Structure prediction request, 585 residues.
Amino acid sequence: MRWSKTFIPTLKETPAEAEILSHKLLLRAGIVRKLTGGLYTFLPIGLRVLKRIEGVIREEMNAAGGLEVLMPALHPPEIWQQSGRYETARDVLYKARDRANKEWVLSPTAEEVVTTLAAGEISSYRQMPLNFYQISVKFRDEIRPRFGLMRAKEFIMKDAYSFDGSDEGAMASYQRMFNAYQRIFNRCGLKNFPVEADTGVIGGSHSHEFMVPAETGENDVVYCESGKYAANIEKATSAGPVNPTPITETALAPEKFPTPGAVTIANLVAAPYNVPACQQIKTLVFMVKSAATDQTQPVIVLVRGDDELNEAKFAGLIGTTIFRPATAEEIFSFLGAHPGSLGAVASTLAAEGKKWTVLADEALRGGKGMVTGANADGFHIRHIDIPRDIAVSQWGDLRTVKAGELCLATGKPLKIQRAIEVGHVFKLGTKYSEKLNARFLDAEGKSKPCVMGCYGIGVTRTLQAIIEQCNDKDGIIWPVAVAPYVVCLTPLSIAPGSAVMETAEKIYKELTEAGIEVIIDDRDERPGVKFKDADLIGFPIRVGIGEKSLSKGEVELKPRGGTLQLVKTEDAVGQILAAIKAKSA
Ligand code: ATP
Ligand code: MG
Prediction:
């Protein structure tokens, strides 16, 4: 490709809208341009990278037995109603209306469509395993689209769906995808690692996210340095808080005491109360919609004063994602007090004779001498003996793990690292096949639902994650496998017929014949401008061809991020190929 014939609008200045480095580089290197928040146009260089990442994904998906298909992006809402996600995923669904005012859903993912396909096509166990995948546009009405392609309203996803006749088969499919994902991200040049992921309402233990360590990531990963444990913080467990919950053996009865103005854990930690946070009970109230009865009920959740409720774990325990924090008015009407003075001591709840659902975190189990709100504004209660005074309906792991807690697998302290989620593999089981009737006859002629898995890669997010990880002060450093062009030839004068241009053209021709993607910077620009642009865009190899070195029979070979070498003109192509090989290793 001739630089003058393509379109690479590099920017010297960093656009103010970009908060993180990779977003700045996306714009500065002329990879994308914003239409409006969360919506981007891929320019020629960006599209080339995207296609190369897709190429890697395709090769590995095909090698793992995936069959590429292309499903509609416009979905009838009926299938979303059938799966139940018209309700549970409503926040992210973009909807459109047609001329007859009928509603349509813009695909955020495609379990409903692929399961409908399977329902029509799969009838016998003999047809499985099957794995359909596609690489296509997805739409999500994100609360906070940001960081460029990282969290967009519209993005490219590779989504795959496996269908098996048995649980063992589904596990084998899962493992094949897991392995393929490791190869894909490694080939893309990304440092990445799989972590155990939240399985939410579907449950089960087979879900992993592929994470790219980065401070700008939106996930916290809890891991043990031994390499034996890593999990998304939404799912992570530990041996429990470092400081145990106090068990003060006293026979003292619960005692209400005035705490005017003390409405936070910290207020009670401070003088004159001096109650350590680990001795306090934090009381939260949620409005939960029951899937069975369709009714919304308040649920009280208790965690230790120094702990945070983990909403993913809470959703897992109650079996639904349809909940929200109760409003202050709702809370007052239920408990007779405002947030800051709430508690679940049975004697303070009894007023209306209501049967409360009280969920409590395991870390509170057995706590004695605890302090909590009295359900009366400006009052708390002390000497609480949890087993004696609080009627817990259900115990569970509801707290968020903190760094330094001990790993259940190794006993070593856990660490926490920010990371970008680029991929997700999930054993779904029969949730969708049951709801959408994807059934088959087994070897005995019995009708059974297909056992499914789903597997996603954020292709556009992966592109940006590579930039986030592979860069230096001068710009991007593309791994060879995904580079827009692998070699950038930079003739320092562009006079047609000059020795410089002739040499550049000859190397261009030979490299192209060797199957290498080359761009030749034939712009009438100063060398400094050309070098800066090449570094900013991040071509893995740059070859400078100037009169001075050429008169000595040499050209300059500069691997991006490496040191400049002078090579004999006649050896140039061989040396460039060797440098590419070295960089690809
Ligand atoms: P997140 O927690 O980041 O919102 P998710 O759990 O909703 O991700 P999945 O539904 O598993 O994501 O989608 C599969 C992949 O699609 C993710 O691993 C991620 O790489 C990508 N992805 C999801 N949402 C977006 C988005 N808004 N913009 C870009 N990529 C996305
Ligand atoms: Mg999401």
Remarks:
- The chain has three domains: 15-190+427-467, 255-396, 485-584.
